[in-house]
Amino acid sequence: MKVFPSPGLSVRDPATMNLLDENGLEVADGDLYWDRLLRDKDVTLTPPAKAKPTTGGDKQ
Prior knowledge:
Elements: E1 2-5, E2 25-26, H1 32-39, E3 43-44
Antiparallel strand pairs: 1-2, 1-3
Pfam family, one: DUF2635
Protein name: DUF2635 domain-containing protein
Organism: Ralstonia pickettii OR214
């Protein structure tokens, strides 16, 4: 399964000690650590929504 950090949270991979980035991380199904974070809603299975670019600015 591929996990992504929930919006507004920083989640560390215990194997590498690196923070998960927005591209997510492929982890083993049934891994107790990731299952617990998923249950606690610290990570999600859906990728984060892309921010819509703002155009222009204050046009007068």
